[in-house]
Specification:
By secondary structure, the protein is mainly β. It has three helices and 25 strands. The chain is globular.
Length: 354
């Protein structure tokens, strides 16, 4: 039986509350997003206002921070500020430990943190779990990649890896538009895919730390695509229309030496396109963090998610449960929406979902 996540994490950035920015971590129980006994259709347009769970942890560093999940149980959070200083929070044991600083250059513009799962289910000699690694990739493809890995002493260290080899002209002129991870390969490492505007797609082998150019084409996604092993697919937001969710079989594209295509596309989630998280067991969460403004109220598809006038200017986080199922014996799938939970997170706030 595949692992299914019990919790999501909402990181709320309360930069307007104090002179120093700080971040609050809240834990969301995913079971509330899904309907039992196949009743998803009846709940698809239901939005429930829910109280924001109590804060689990606060992070307070002088600079802005970005976060990534770590660990087999998806319960460890790595936070890194824009100067390369880091902290590791373990929600299972409610413990915090500092991380070593990244090797220079460590002043970032835009980060794309990619967590790589452990490659096998074998525990370490001391019985502890393998927590995997985190690869911090900048949107600027010419910058080195920073990998948070275990050293020979089983302690966390940062290793600086080369950027994608974009050729004699370098990677200037284009940002990374999409990234994805293949963690279910019959080899020692994983593949981290990146598509660079105007330069094509490359993958990094995490076992050998070497880059390979896959082709002059781009992945069919925008932002991050998440692997769903039970479906044999990668799922993310479409590069053509960010209001659509699409699926592609990247492994088959590699085996057949062809550009991956958007094999299936689903509409109906155009108002929720900021975050897509795979929970396991063919279940996903689609999340959106937004500020309720007069402009947003006038947009047609927000009509069924009406908020009162007194909520104007406030920020909200909305989570929607989604299930993808096979249609018969073929490769076609259907997507079902379940419940949506909406949390008011205050004024002048941004955040992320892990």
């Amino acid at each position: 039986m595949s692992f299914r996540r019990q919790f999501l994490y909402l990181v709320v950035h309360r930069y307007a509350v104090r002179r120093s920015p700080w971040y609050a971590l809240h834990r969301i129980n995913t079971s509330r997003l899904f309907c039992p006994n196949g009743s998803a259709d009846r709940a698809a347009n239901t939005v429930v206002d829910a109280p924001l769970p109590e804060r689990r942890m606060s992070f307070d560093l002088p600079g802005s921070m970005q976060f990534s999940l770590l660990g087999r149980q998806k319960d460890k959070i790595v936070g890194v500020d824009d100067m390369g200083r880091g902290v590791l929070y373990d929600d299972g044991s409610l413990s915090v430990r500092p991380l070593p600083s990244m090797a220079p250059p460590n002043c970032f513009r835009t980060l794309l943190s990619v967590a790589v799962d452990p490659q096998n289910d074998v525990a370490k000699d001391d019985g502890a779990e393998d927590d995997g690694s985190v690869y911090v990739i900048e949107a600027d493809p010419g910058r080195p990649i920073q990998a948070l890995v275990h050293d020979r002493n089983d302690d966390w260290v940062w290793r600086s890896l080369p950027p994608p080899p974009c050729g004699k002209d370098g990677c200037s002129g284009g940002d990374i538009t999409c990234h994805a991870v293949d963690v279910h390969r019959e080899c020692d490492g994983s593949l981290i895919w990146v598509s660079i505007a105007g330069r094509g797609t490359y993958w990094l082998d995490t076992a050998t730390h070497t880059w390979t150019k896959a082709g002059d084409w781009a992945l069919p996604f925008r932002g991050q695509a998440v692997p769903a092993p039970e479906l044999g697919l990668w799922i993310g937001f479409s590069a053509v229309d960010s209001g659509q969710i699409c699926a592609s079989d990247l492994a088959a594209a590699v085996d057949e030496d062809r550009p991956p295509a958007a094999d299936q596309v689903w509409d109906g989630l155009s108002e929720l396109y900021s975050h897509l998280v795979y929970l396991g067991g063919r279940q996903f969460c689609v999340a959106k963090i937004f500020e309720w403004t007069p402009h947003l109220r006038r947009r047609r598809y927000w009509g069924r998610f009406h908020l009162p006038d007194e909520d104007e200017g406030k920020c909200f986080a909305m989570f929607t449960g989604v299930t993808v199922v096979n249609c018969g014996s073929g490769r076609r799938h259907r997507m079902f929406k379940h419940r949506s939970l909406r949390y008011c997170i205050g004024d002048s706030i941004t955040g992320c979902v892990l």
